[in-house]
Amino acid sequence: MNVIEIKDLVKKYDDTIAVDNINLSIEEGEIYGILGPNGAGKSTIISLICSLLHPSIGEIKILGEDIKKKSLKVKRHIGLVPQNLAVYKDFTAYENVKFFGELYGLRGKVLEDAIDEALEFTGLSDVRKKKAKEYSGGMLRRLNIACAIVHNPKILIMDEPTVGIDPQSRNNIMQAVKKLNKKGVTIIYTTHYMEEAESLCTKVAIIDKGKIIVEGTKEELKNIVSDKKILNIGVDDIYKVNIEKLRNIEGVIDISIDDNSVIITSSKDVNNLTKILKEISDESLKINDLGFKEITLETVFLSLTGKKLRN
Ligand code: ADP
């Protein structure tokens, strides 16, 4: 069953088209990654799904219901972990989670059990009586998640939940996502860290400038570039590289620059390595690094857009 169906979705802010005609179906049980650089439109898509913004054009159905008509009914099934922390620093962890549980109409023993479970799940039971202002950044992120899951949602939407936190807390959050998914929760996870999408997501949509560039399982996405090779050449003076000449070499599809490296996407079956290296040495450049990039979601993005995900 599709838990989310998005049709011809457009969102404009004055002159900016933040979401540009997106179509998307998310099946029950997926950990669905929305991957894209800053400004790609990820947060806007999330806000539209959660009815925090209204589309300029298009339709969103959640659990089969049009959210324009049944916004309140479907909101009960969604948990949102927003990018900006939504916790009250002067409240304890317990009070924060209780506040959110009450918002969703939980009361009495059901509420208390739900708070216990959410705090236990995010590893905060022992510090439940501490005020949030005494928490570390990673603990605050976990509390943000506890608040979003207290009402036992069917769909959990996480907007860049690991930005700016230490590796241990990031790991902790990623484990929690996997555990929740095992319990049957469908997860939508936006990130610009491709390693997270690689390790977590069952399906990924890569977006750029408000459009979906490509969508599928990680294997499907990597197959798109299986007929290409991506060469990484580190040089001593990147400004001397004659990009136009390199671009004219047979088989070369795209060229980008990353610090002191030239990254060349080329057809796999054209044997052009000697020509490429000769062209670079003709410019009296010293090559100090040379290798093929492993095919990852980052290289898929790079080869489709000529850009790095992290800018
Ligand atoms: P992401 O979450 O991928 O970083 P956003 O959805 O925040 O991207 O932004 C998509 C585009 O919409 C960007 O160009 C951004 O500058 C623009 N944008 C986002 N929010 C607003 C707003 N409230 N008013 C005007 N432009 C906005």
UniProtKB/TrEMBL annotation:
<dbReference type="InterPro" id="IPR003439">
    <property type="entry name" value="ABC_transporter-like_ATP-bd"/>
</dbReference>
<dbReference type="InterPro" id="IPR017871">
    <property type="entry name" value="ABC_transporter-like_CS"/>
</dbReference>
<protein>
    <submittedName>
        <fullName>ABC transporter ATP-binding protein</fullName>
    </submittedName>
</protein>
<keyword id="KW-1278">Translocase</keyword>
<feature type="domain" description="ABC transporter">
    <location>
        <begin position="4"/>
        <end position="234"/>
    </location>
</feature>
<keyword id="KW-0547">Nucleotide-binding</keyword>
<keyword id="KW-0067">ATP-binding</keyword>
<keyword id="KW-0813">Transport</keyword>
<dbReference type="GO" id="GO:0016887">
    <property type="term" value="F:ATP hydrolysis activity"/>
</dbReference>
<dbReference type="GO" id="GO:0005886">
    <property type="term" value="C:plasma membrane"/>
</dbReference>
<dbReference type="GO" id="GO:0005524">
    <property type="term" value="F:ATP binding"/>
</dbReference>
<keyword id="KW-1003">Cell membrane</keyword>
<dbReference type="InterPro" id="IPR003593">
    <property type="entry name" value="AAA+_ATPase"/>
</dbReference>
<dbReference type="Pfam" id="PF00005">
    <property type="entry name" value="ABC_tran"/>
</dbReference>
<keyword id="KW-0472">Membrane</keyword>
<dbReference type="InterPro" id="IPR027417">
    <property type="entry name" value="P-loop_NTPase"/>
</dbReference>
